[in-house]
C-alpha cells in the first residue's frame, strides 16, 4: 500500500526543526513527514542528529525552533505525555524499562489502570498485559518477574507492547532489533508490517541495511544535523545510502535506480 | 505487626518465593533468633512489659525509617531526619510553652518537618543538587535552627498533656494485687507503637496500591525510563521528601513527648539508624528496592539488639560496634544472593 500516491494527508509533519546544545547544532532546519501506513527509515551516523530529532517528536526534548503538525493543527509536545496523548508512541533504544518492576507495571507505567477508588488495578493490568504480550510472543511467561530477570527479547516485547497497546498513530522505533536474535528480529519485522497494514506510520531508526531495505518505504538520511536526502527505497541502492550517510551526498552522476520515477521533490530538496 | 508477618508467611505456602520475600524471611529469622538468644540469657526479656518497651523504643527509629525508605526507594537519601526531628520537637515544645494547645502545637511541629522535607525536595529536583549534599545542608540548617531558637537549652515543664502521646498507652489495665496495692495487669500498648503500625500500614498501602507508590519504585529503578513513560518525576520525588520530613517531625514530637522536654540536641545520628534499618530490611541505596515491612524488621532488629544488649549489661559503645557489623553483614548477605 502506498498512501503517498493516493494523496492522503501526512500523519505528522516536522517543519524546520532546530535543536542546539550550547554551540553545537544537533538538528539544523530539518523537515520530514510521515504518511499513514508508511515506514520511513531515519539513517545516519551516530551523532548525526537522528535520535535527537526523534526525541523532539516524542516529547522528550523541546526544539529551539520549528513546528510539528499533526493533521491540520500545530502541536507542541512539552512532555512525553503530550506526545502520547496525540498518539505518538516511542520505543527507545534503551527500552526505557524500570528494571525492578514486573511486565504489567512497566506496560502501564505512567497510565496505570485504577479501580473505582483510585487504587491500582493490578489484576486487570495483569490480564491486559498477558493478552497483549501473548499476542506478540505466545511463549511469554513469568509476567510477575521483575524485568531485569527477563531476556533481551522479552524486554523488547514489553517495550513494543507498551507502545502499541494504547491508541498509536505514529510509532518511533529506535534500533528495535539491535539487541535481538534472528527469531526475535523476524518477529519485530512481522510486527512492523502488520502495524503498517493497520495504517500506522512508523519512523524506524536503524543501522541495519538489510532491515532498512526489507521494511522501509522511504528513507531520510541525516548528516551533521542536516537532512541530506529523502528517497523512496526503490530509487536507491545500499551503496547510495552509504554514500549519503558517510559523505552527506549521493555518488557523482547519480540517477534514480528506477529510472521511470523522478526524485521526490520536497523531500530531497533539502 | 501482624499484617507484615502475614505478608511474609503467605509466600511460604506458594511454590515460588521471590528474592525480596527471601531477604525479608532471612531478616525476620535473624530477628527471631535475636529474641530467642536474649530470652535465653534473661527471662525478663520476654516479659510483656519489656516487649512494650522495645515497641516504644523502636517506634522513633521505625517512623524515621519509613520516611527514609520512601526517599531511598527514589534513589535518594535523607541525612536531615535526625536534625528535622529535633527542630520539629523544639518548635512543638516552644509553641506549647507559648500557650498554644498541645494538639495544635504538635501539628505545627509536623508541618515544620514537612516544610524541611519540601525544601529538601525542591533543592534536589529544581536546583539539581544531589540528595546527599542537599540533605546534608538541611541537616546543619535544621540543627542550627533548633539550637538557635531554644538558645541550646532544653524546654521543660511542658505539662502533662504534652507527655501523653509519648507515655500513654491503650488498654492499660490496673487491678488490685493480693496485698491491696495496685498491680499492673497489662501495661497497655504504647501510643507510639500504635502510631507506628498505623503509619507503616498506610505507607505500605500507598507504595503497593496507589500509583504514586508505583512511580516511586519506577523512579528509583530507572529515572529516565520513568520520565519517558510520563511519570511526574519531580513531583513524585518532592512528595517522597515531604513525607520523610513530616515523618521525622512526627518522630520528633513522639520523642519529645516521651521525654516531656523539648531537646534541641536530640536525635543526633538518628538518620544513620534510620538508614541502617532500611538497609537491614533489604532496601538498596541505588533505589527501586525496599519495602516498609523490611524496614520495620530492620528497625526491630536494631531495637531488640539495643534492648537485649542493655539488659545483658553490654556498654553502649560495644552496641554500636555490633550494630555496625550487623549492617555490613545484612548487605553482604543480600549481595551474595543477588549475585547467585
Automatic annotation (TrEMBL), chain A:
Listed A to Z, the keywords are:
ATP-binding, Nucleotide-binding, Repeat, Sugar transport, Transport
- An example Pfam family from this entry, by short name, is ABC_tran
Q: Which InterPro entries match?
A: AAA+_ATPase, ABC_carbohydrate_import_ATPase, ABC_transporter-like_ATP-bd, ABC_transporter-like_CS, P-loop_NTPase
Q: Where is the ABC transporter domain?
A: 12-249
Gene3D superfamilies for this protein: P-loop containing nucleotide triphosphate hydrolases (3.40.50.300)
GO molecular function annotation: ATP binding; ATP hydrolysis activity
> Do the record's keywords include Ligase?
no
Similarity comment text for this entry: Belongs to the ABC transporter superfamily.
Q: What is this protein called?
A: Monosaccharide ABC transporter ATP-binding protein (CUT2 family)
Source organism per entry reads Phyllobacterium bourgognense
From TrEMBL, chain B:
GO molecular function terms listed in the Swiss-Prot or TrEMBL record: transmembrane transporter activity
User: What are the alphabetically sorted keywords of the record?
Assistant: Cell membrane, Membrane, Transmembrane, Transmembrane helix
What is the topology of this protein in the membrane according to its UniProt annotation?
Multi-pass membrane protein
Subcellular location(s) of the protein: Cell membrane
Where are the membrane-spanning stretches?
A: 25-48, 54-73, 106-125, 132-155, 189-207, 238-255, 275-305, 312-333
Under the heading InterPro entries, the entry gives: ABC_transp_permease (IPR001851)
Q: Which domain of life is it from?
A: Bacteria
Report the GO terms under cellular component.
plasma membrane
Q: What is its main location?
A: membrane
User: Is Transmembrane helix set as a keyword in this record?
Assistant: yes
**Can the keyword Transmembrane helix be found in this entry's annotation?**
yes
Family matches, as PANTHER family: ABC TRANSPORTER PERMEASE PROTEIN YPHD-RELATED-RELATED
Q: Per its record, how is this protein called by name?
A: Monosaccharide ABC transporter membrane protein (CUT2 family)
Instruction: Tell me what organism the protein belongs to.
Output: Phyllobacterium bourgognense
Organism lineage reads as: Bacteria, Pseudomonadati, Pseudomonadota, Alphaproteobacteria, Hyphomicrobiales
